[in-house]
Amino acid sequence: MTGTTECSRHALDGIVVLDLSGPMGNYCGKLFADLGADVILVEPATGVPTRGMEPMISGHEGAEASLVYQYQNTNKRSVVLDLEHAGGQQSLRALVKGADLLIESEHPGVMHARGLDYQTLRKINPALVMASITPFGQSGPYADWQAEDIVGLALGGMLYLGGYTDTAPIAAFGDQAISAANLFAAVAAMAALYDAEASGSGQHIDISMQECVVMGLENAVQFYDLEGVVRKRTAGKQRLAGTGVFRCKDGYIYLMAGGVVGNRFWPITTQWLLDEGVEGAQALADPRWLSQDFLATDEARKIFLDIFNPFVLAHTKQELHEKGRARRIPIAPVYDTSDLEHREQLRHREYFVSTPGPYGTLLRMPGAPYKLSATPWSLRHGAPRLGEHTQEILAQVGATAQSLARIEASGEIQ
Amino acid sequence: MKRLLHGVTVADFTWIGAGAYATKLLADLGADVIKIETSTRLDSLRVGRPFKDKIPGVNRSGYFADRNSSKRSITINLKHAEGLVLVKKLVARANLVANNFTPGIMDKLGLSYDVVKQIRPDIVYASMSMQGATGPDCKDLGYGLTIGAVTGIQHLIGLPDREPAGTGTNYPDHIPNPGHAAFAMIAALRHQRRTGQGQVVDIAQTEPPMAMIGPSIMNYLVNRKVDGRRGNAHPAMAPHGVYPCRGEDRWIAIAVASDAQWSALRQVLGLPDKPEWSHKTGRLADRDTLDNLVAESTRDRHAIPLMEALQKAGVAAGAVHDASDVLTHDPQLAARGHWLVMDHPEMGPSTYNSAPFRFSDADSAPSSPAPLLGQHTREICREFMSLDDVEIDRLVECGALI
Fold first, then answer.
1. Whether B331 and A141 lie within 8 Å, measured CB to CB
2. Distance between CA atoms of B221 and A256, rounded to whole angstroms?
3. Among A103, B10, B173, B392, which residue has the least CB neighbours within 10 Å?
């Protein structure tokens, strides 16, 4: 579909997206919707699975109550189609005719069984981009396996790096493996659309959650490949002396005095502690502290902690943040979600946005993850009610559906 | 096969973590990403471990290499008057200018948006500072782990009665920020091509990580509930966790999402049963008891065969892979060809991540290993600035191209 070329208000004006997914794709669809694409959420009569995910709006349950659903489906429209039956499949094929991108997250083979695989759909629309997001990809020995988020984190290697030295590995919070799959799918789909708009030829994209998690392993794989060292989890002790979480007067701070290549922050951190009159800080000025090998020893960790602890425990996270900021030392308060609301910086950037939600609630949520000066991110409306736009969308494609039915009956599309 | 961003030129001023990773995604997708460096102030990843054969060197870091595949490198001294002229010639031919400096640095270098816009009116000008271009905290210095701290991510991971554990990595640098940045950059490039309009893309590296814990932030903003650390527990699944296996530091992750999966898990592990455990509510109520039962049963088994047996029975289970497992032992990553060995001019054959997606009709794997420092200075000067070798020699000698 083409939009206006002169006065586009949104970066993705004119792009039509069909989002057939659930948790493994709804955030991908949101990224397109929030930059102006017309994203149609295609739901079964029972609703997308995201509708059942916690947390819920307090005191409510049912199809509109999930905050996960409300967050991941802003700016979309909803159509109910039964893709298990011929009528629904035919309506979907009609929608595909006018669509640029289809996002789906079924187990490999399901779309084929429905007559909705890429080979079939590209005959209807050669420029169609189809993103298939699954735990392990469309083929290979794990292709049919089950995976929740924690399994993706495990087999992708991130889980092993999380947690304390004396406990089991501990998973990241908030479905980060699933989020990573959504995000990389969005990058790949955006690139494929960029090409398809010029070439007229689309792509099928096969996205693996496991592989997306592997992208988050930092330098762990290269450490093994080049130095034969398997990186392990480090929480509970300083990653290197001077780098890690420290308890302070009213919570925790994260300090990175020794964790940066070249140790450029070590001398200024030492100077800071000297200026504060911290007892024993002179010891940190010894040249051996400039070696990362020394910082990696238990001896260095202990000396640093003994010197730093009395000082850090006597100050609040805000005081420490401001003192460190004045000297350009990377030290940051560990905030919880309630701290974020009052941050002046986020208020200045109008980061949090609101939209009326179900049950008379006002839904406040994170807004623009990027500010585009000419075509800004925007929250035009909240997530749709189940099937809210079924009539208008089916009316829109009704004629197409009928003509497709005739073509299918004639055997041109199998 | 074709590459999807073929024809896009990027003048890349990013370095270190998230910035260089974002432009790497574009480079692997086929954009011509020209990394603008100088030997007088190195990208610190160039001198960060791990090194090939453990020998330090500006062209030997595996971390740098993986973050800079498919790019070309030119060394230009931007503080030299002629260096600035050269870089402006490059910018004039670019679709996208990217940086991840603290706000103000590009202005000081003489490459503010206003200046660049004069040279190239339709430029997409992407900046990735820690806190964004303006505001009271805009001069803050940021690294992945301090970003994790101020966004709530660090706080949310770990055990409730212990210090926040975080992911153990600079997570925001690897997935949330490069992913969102690359998406926004390509979207802006699409708008540029359709309308001829350029723009600023201002990314605060604190904001994409918060977007990735959106529902938890909403739980506070809407419900006034502050989420805390919960180990490996899940609000809607039990058993759900990481359980010990045979061997040193070997573990398996298991998640039971349905009653049928519980029954399958029970059979594979030979667990005792209680009628109330056949429903989610009953299992969630006895979460700790179930975790202990599962752990007792997994402790003497090897993770890989147990994972296979559980998967065969329809239970979501995965061995907790370490870096050597993902690189050398995982048959799925191998079948997908995730690891790519490319012959680097100084490091020799070395391992790179492929992109985590495959296209039916286009390439997605990196096209070349990371560049040596200044490896492409001469060819870029010839291609983009129409300089001949005599002139290039002079610019090297006078300190503009170093």
1. yes
2. 30
3. B392
Pick the residue of B26, B167, B243, B363 with the most A CBs within 10 A to test the interface with A by mutation. Answer: B167
Chain A residues whose beta carbon lies within 8 Å of the beta carbon of residue B29: 191
Q: What angle do CA B129, B66, A26 make, to 5 degrees?
A: 65
SS3 B182: helix
Cα–Cα distance measured from residue B110 to residue B112, given in angstroms and rounded to the nearest whole number = 6
Structure tokens at B298: 């997994």
Tokens at B334, concatenated: 């191998």
Series of mean pLDDT values for 10-residue runs along chain B (402 residues): 97 96 98 97 92 96 97 97 97 98 96 98 97 94 90 97 95 97 98 98 98 98 98 97 98 98 98 96 98 98 98 98 98 98 97 97 98 98 96 97 94
Distance between A90 CA and the closest CA of chain B, angstroms:
24
pTM of the model: 0.97
Residue-wise pLDDT tens digits, A100-120: 999 999 999 999 999 999 999
**Nearest-by-Cβ selection for B323 from A186, A224, A369:** A224
C-alpha A36/C-alpha A131 separation (Å) is 19
Active site (catalytic) residues of B: 173
User: At residue A308, what is the residue type?
Assistant: F
Q: What is the ipTM of this complex?
A: 0.98
Say whether B44 and A262 touch across the interface (CB within 8 A): yes
Which residue type does A231 have? R
Q: Is the peptide bond before A55 cis (omega within 30 degrees of 0)?
A: yes
| A369 close to B132: Cβ distance less than 8 angstroms | no
Residues whose CB falls within 8 Å of the CB of residue A153, separated by 6 or more in sequence, listed in order:
A159, A162, A171, A172, A176, A177, A213, B253
Using DSSP's 3-state secondary structure scheme, residue B339 falls into strand
Cα separation, A390 vs A393, in Å, equals: 5
**Region for A336 from its dihedrals, namely left if φ exceeds 0, alpha if ψ lies in -120 to 50, beta otherwise:** beta
Contact between chains at B364 and A188 (C-beta distance less than 8 A): yes
**Residue A293, CB half-sphere, CA atoms under 13 Å: how many?**
3
Partners of B151 on chain A (C-beta within 8 Å) are: 335, 340
| Chain mean position to CA A90 | 32
Q: Residue A361: left if φ>0, alpha if ψ -120 to 50, beta else—which one?
A: beta
From chain A, the residues in CB contact with B225 under 8 A are 55, 58
A211, with CB counted inside 10 A (0-12, 13-18, 19+), is buried
The secondary structure of residue B272, as a DSSP letter, is: -
Are A371 and B132 inside 8 Å of each other by CB?
A: yes
Interface with chain A: mutation pick from B123, B234, B291, B320, highest number of A CBs within 10 Å: B320
Neighboring chain B residues of A162 at a CB cutoff of 8 Å = 157, 165-168
Q: Which two tokens stand for residue A143?
A: 């292709």
SS3 A372: strand
Helix ranges, A137-265 (H): 149-155, 158-161, 176-199, 209-214, 220-222
